[in-house]
Amino acid sequence: MIRLIMRLHLFLFCFAALAVSACREEPSSTMTDMPSNQDPYLWLEEVEGEEALSWVREQNDRTLADLESDPDYDAFEAAAVEVLTSKERIPYGRIRSGQVYNFWQDETNVRGLWRRTPLESYREEEPDWETVLDFDLLAKREGKNWVFKGADCFHDKTSDSYRCLVSLSDGGKDAVIKREFDLETRSFVEDGFVTPEAKQGSAWAGPDTLLISTDWGEGSLTESGYPRIVKRWKRGTPLEEADVLLSGDVEDVGVWPYTIETSDDRILSFVEESDTFFTSTRWWIPDGETAPVKLPVPSKCSLIDVLGPSLFILLKEDWEVDGTAFLSGDLVAFDLDEFLDTRMLPGVQLVFHPTESQAVGSVHVVGEKALMTMDDNVAGQVLRLDKVGADWVTTPIDLPVAGQAGVAFADKDETTAFLTFEGFLTPDSLYEYDSNSAEVTLLKQLPAKYDAEGLTVEQHFAVSTDGTRVPYFAIHRSDITLDGSTPTLLYGYGGFQISLNPGYNGTTGRLWLEKGGAYVLANIRGGGEFGPDWHQAGLKLNRQRVYDDFISVGEDLIARKLTSPEHLGIMGGSNGGLLMGVMLNQRPDLWNAVVVQVPLLDMLRYHLLLAGASWVDEYGSPDVAEERAFLETISPYHNFHSSKKYPTPFFVTSTKDDRVHPGHARKMAKLFEDADLPFLYYENIDGGHSAAANKKERAKRTALEYVYLKRRLFNSIRGKS
To answer: Structurally, what CATH architecture does the domain formed by 29-33+50-81+449-713 represent?
Structure first.
């Protein structure tokens, strides 16, 4: 089993991009020609600055007073709280020695419970849960706003016991502390492993050994703010005395440790040096040796899992080995044991070649079997991988179709896997898969969170500027009149090879679909819906394709008369927040509402803010003349025009977001304020990159967004609020 621990790949985003369109205006010379250090609103980049926070509180007060006074707000928030904190949720978990471990949040347990129950009990409708760690009590006892960020556990098979590194974030930041926890005693280990707060990565290399990358002090971080030095830390020794295994370059994105656990229970130590966001150099650290051994694999690929001697690799670029050409998107494998013995690349074998409409997701080993996830025309499948003779064959697992199937849990030490299925109108289902018999059993199924009676799902294709067919899903009432009057919310992301797949969203259902609105999900380039090439088609100077795709979907919705500009709104966050900013500038005539969530907006300074330097492989660098020239044409902050007729936008961000700087949203909103143009702004003081530290905060943010959308899109007069 490969344990990629705390890779911190910032595309826990879930949103999209930037660009230029046929009707764009020339960029404002007052902003693009100004040196970035002379930006008049730099004071808003002081995250905890007194003046900046005073401005934030003023905007929050104004926006909350407006939206919370809406007659529908209380009902919207109550519905969102009911959906998000409902006990009628599947308690997804992972199996450890016959116990299913689950993290659970509800109205009472706001920060959450880490709990467990025997597998036999888990199969029952009402499992008998035992609390492992109560994060509300822990936060109260320690006076911290703890947000649970996961646990990495080591299974000591000699004693069948587990020690875990529990990651805790103060307020939801990416920066965490890690503390060793004993699952048997359900307590933190006295004098156990503890790390200071930092953006960090770790991996168990044995019961008493950690591989760790963290902030080691001055000069130990990359330009992106991530660790560049990996050390081996032995139990009972000070952290500062840990042995250096590998030091990366300051220009790297980050350097991360991980381990590979083989089928015969050996634990192999590795380091991934992320040279850029999408390229990496991988190193094996042999036991008892100090010199790392470079893995002979492409820089654009993912090491996935190990089955027997076979190490699975998902290619994200073409690769030729001994005269055999493998293509980007292929799943391949080679004999790991042979590589360890010879330190040379052994023969590489094709495992699966996807068609143009397919994209391999991952491989999961359960017991002595392997499961592969795959998207086919943006619908997810799970297939069993078997080696028959010299060849690999796939067999579909018997799960529902026309939705998203996936693997929730699998482990080589267990013969049981948990599989999932959901669709736009189909609530989540959890299946138990027996790897010995290949039997699939429905384990749990959610009741509906909203009334889907009369709703239908359609998939259409818009034609982008360059002729590319761009798919999108539309969910709406089946009896609507196609006269352009349907209030429609269009969501997009388009970046970092993140796929937007069919999924069940109770809050969207309750607050939008039930009210008669339509919801549209755009599968634009930049994402991973059709594999690496679909993503790479929208990188850097080609990024306008992403924006053209999104615009084409909006225009197609209008051409089909599902909606019209006065009833069409858009939403996206993070990279998708950038997409929203670009859409504000490029086609303000096409939408009447724009929800801009935790966005990037200043594309000439983004690489200087927090983790921004790690994204130059996606967007291009403002320090490279050609790339800067392009970024100037799409940067939402620099293409704002006070004379342009904008729809009233709603900016949402978080003070504690230590991934995408809140200064992006602050500065763009300030432009609207100084131009005396209407806008709404809400900045959650906690919450990290999700802009919500817990489910109640998320419910509040969601209610605010949908009240805003209702006001803008259910009105027949454009611009009326």
So the answer is: 3-Layer(aba) Sandwich (3.40)
